[in-house]
Design goal:
About 55% of the residues lie in helices and about 0% in strands. By secondary structure, it is mainly α. This is Solute carrier family 25 member 46. Keywords: Membrane, Mitochondrion, Mitochondrion outer membrane, Repeat, Transmembrane, Transmembrane helix, Transport. One of its GO terms (cellular component) is mitochondrial outer membrane.
Length: about 400
């Protein structure tokens, strides 16, 4: 039979071979008498998708090949900056070094400073760091290295109690734990009230921690890390180790403790924000261009905050040093504590003060020890922050070298 199909019949629509759009796709099929223009975009066969079955026997889909790179493309690629993981590790290491210096490496200075503050017998005030270092060496030589690291575990316990109490009070009350950028006087007062309540709750545990840090290693047992919790609870409930009648009640210690804590927080926060503002204004953030500038940008992002925190703590400790001396003497009174002789470092001395309160303590120190009596042990605070500044600078140099060589 002779086929009546024209030679130029496509199979799906009639279209002349002379149509210039013959090589294009086909449109959707129309069942009416559509013109060739309506049928020029009809898709005849599906594309050759990898894994599809529209192949002949023994045929395989060829693998995709990556498009060749344009000539000169590798020359225009920017230099890869240090990895984000390395930057995070650097920031974590810098913060960890600062935390280690504040709480571990500087602990001997804190111990000696507190012993000097409560030692009303002392003739040498240790206003110079040289005399403080020499006596600290004598204490270590006669009693061993543990003599200047005593009570370190209790300080961490007090910090944990403080943070936990602050979080619980902020969750159970409308007192704000943090201040927003658009703060008002009501929020500031509520925030300071929250801080004051936190210091009141942590006060008995701070008192127990203070006794552990100033007690001489010669007559001191080896208490557990939670011994200050036991002593703090016993101080609140009136149980535990018997104290003398000169022991001040907790409500009598509330005013100097809260006053010192709130003022220390206000001074340190204010100085920290001011220093951070000046540092960022002096060296604004720059967009990294190469590896070295990326390292410098990363260091500029971490160190202003650490430097601001360092300066804020230093200013607060120096300004409130006299109040801290009075507070520590009131806390230690009546606890039958025996401390090291801070004049020589080879003997022990009992603490037998009879202050009636904060005003009487200030008057007695001024009358018997002079104005410099409020600054006993000030040389140790110079050693502490000098050591802290040196560790920060060494850490910065080390991480700058590592990141530049990465």
């Amino acid at each position: 039979m002779t086929s009546r199909r024209p030679d130029n019949f496509d199979g799906l629509g009639y279209r002349g071979r002379e149509d210039p759009a013959f090589s294009g796709g086909y449109s959707g099929r129309s069942f009416n008498n559509s013109s060739s223009v309506d049928l020029q975009n009809w898709v005849t066969t599906p594309p050759d998708i990898p894994g599809s079955r529209n192949l002949h026997f023994d045929d395989r889909t060829p693998p995709f090949e990556a498009a060749p790179a344009a000539p000169g493309a590798q020359d225009t690629l920017p230099t890869a900056p240090p990895s984000e993981q390395l930057n995070r590790f650097a920031g974590f290491g810098i913060g960890l070094a600062s935390l280690f210096t504040e709480n571990v490496l500087a602990h001997p200075c804190i111990v000696f400073r507190r012993q000097c503050q409560v030692n009303y017998h002392a003739r040498c005030y240790h206003l110079s760091p040289l005399t403080a270092v020499s006596v600290m060496y004598n204490v270590t030589k006669s009693q061993g290295p543990k003599a200047l690291w005593k009570g370190m575990g209790s300080t961490f316990v007090v910090q944990g109690v403080t943070l936990g109490t602050e979080g619980i009070i902020s969750e159970c009350t409308p007192l704000p734990r943090e201040l927003s950028h658009k703060w008002n006087p009501k929020q500031v007062i509520g925030h300071l009230v929250l801080k004051g309540l936190t210091y009141v709750v942590a006060m008995p545990f701070y008192s127990a921690s203070l006794i552990e840090t100033v007690q001489s290693e010669i007559i001191r047992d080896n208490p557990g890390i939670l011994e200050c919790v036991k002593e703090g609870v016993g101080r609140v409930m009136g149980m535990g180790i018997p104290h003398s009648k000169r022991l001040l009640p907790l409500w009598g210690l509330m005013l100097p403790t809260v006053l010192h804590g709130v003022l220390h927080y206000v001074v340190s926060s204010t100085v920290q924000k001011l220093v951070l503002f000046l540092l960022r204004r002096r060296s604004p953030a720059k967009q990294p261009v190469d590896g070295s500038e990326t390292v410098q940008t990363m260091l500029d992002a971490y160190f202003p905050e650490l430097m601001a925190s360092f300066v804020a703590s230093l200013c607060a400790d120096v300004l409130l040093y006299p109040l801290e001396t009075v507070m520590h003497r009131l806390h230690i009174q009546g606890t039958r504590t025996i401390i090291d002789n801070t004049d020589l470092g080879f003997e022990v001395l009992p603490i037998n003060t009879q202050y009636e309160g904060i005003r009487d303590c200030v008057n007695v120190i001024r009358r018997e020890e002079g104005a410099l009596g409020f600054y006993k042990g000030f040389g140790s605070i110079v050693v502490q922050y000098s050591l802290h500044a040196a560790v920060l600078q060494i850490t910065k140099v080390i991480y700058s070298t590592l990141l530049q060589n990465a």
